[in-house]
Design a protein that fits this description.
There is one protein chain. This protein is mostly helical. The protein has a domain of about 100 residues. It contains 5 helices and 2 strands. It has a two-stranded antiparallel ribbon with strand order 1-2. The relative contact order is 0.10. This is N-acetylglucosamine-induced protein 1.
C-alpha cells in the first residue's frame, strides 16, 4: 500500500510501526494538519530563503508548515506537554523562559526593558532550508492588534521592526 492510500495517521510510518487506530494526539485535527500529515515526506517542498522572505514580507505566516513527519512528532510532543504540565504555555513559561506566572512586564512600553524579552531557537522549526535559523522572540508585554484586521497595528509593527533591526540587523544584515 503506497502512502497516498493510507490514513493520515499511518503516512510516513514504517509498516511495523503503523498504528491500526488513530492515536489520541492525532485525533480531532484541523483540515490543514490532516492534509500535511497525509503528505509523504518525499513529496514535501522545503522552503528556500527567498520563499521564506516572500512569506514574511507578504505577512503569509499561515503558509509556514512543518515537514509531515516533524508535524507528527510536534503534535505528540505538545500532547505530552499538555498531559504532564497542564498546557504548552505552562511548560514554556516555567521550563524554557523561566518566567513566573503571572507574567508582568518591567517596562512601561514594549521593548523598554531587556528582561521583558527572551529570544530562543524554535525547537520545532517549519519546513525550511536547514541553513535558516528560526528564532522566536517571546515578550512579557502585549503587542497591540488592529481589531478590524486581527493583524498588528502599524505602531506595533514599527516597534517590532525597530527591535529586530537593533538586535539582529546590525549583526547579520537587514536582508537576513
Amino acid at each position: 500500500m503506497d502512502d497516498s492510500t493510507l490514513p493520515y495517521w499511518q503516512t510516513n510510518m514504517p509498516i511495523s510501526q503503523r498504528p491500526q487506530t488513530c492515536p489520541p494526539y492525532l485525533a480531532n485535527l484541523n483540515a490543514k494538519d490532516i492534509a500535511i500529515l497525509s503528505t509523504p515526506d518525499s513529496s514535501y517542498h522545503i522552503l528556500t530563503w527567498p520563499e521564506v522572505r516572500a512569506l514574511i514580507t507578504t505577512n503569509r505566516l499561515d503558509a509556514f508548515q512543518r515537514i509531515p513527519s516533524q508535524l507528527r512528532r510536534y503534535l505528540h510532543y505538545n500532547w505530552t506537554l499538555k498531559r504532564d504540565h497542564g498546557s504548552v504555555m505552562a511548560f514554556v513559561l516555567s521550563q524554557r523562559l523561566h518566567w513566573s506566572s503571572p507574567v508582568r512586564a518591567a517596562g512601561s512600553r514594549p521593548f523598554e526593558s531587556e528582561g521583558d524579552v527572551r529570544v530562543l531557537c524554535n525547537d520545532w522549526p517549519y519546513g525550511i532550508d536547514a541553513r535558516i535559523v528560526h528564532l522566536v522572540v517571546w515578550t512579557k508585554f502585549v503587542l497591540e492588534d488592529d481589531e478590524a484586521t486581527g493583524d498588528l497595528t502599524d505602531e506595533a509593527r514599527g516597534l517590532i521592526e525597530g527591535f529586530v533591526g537593533r538586535t539582529f540587523g546590525e549583526r547579520v544584515g537587514r536582508e537576513n
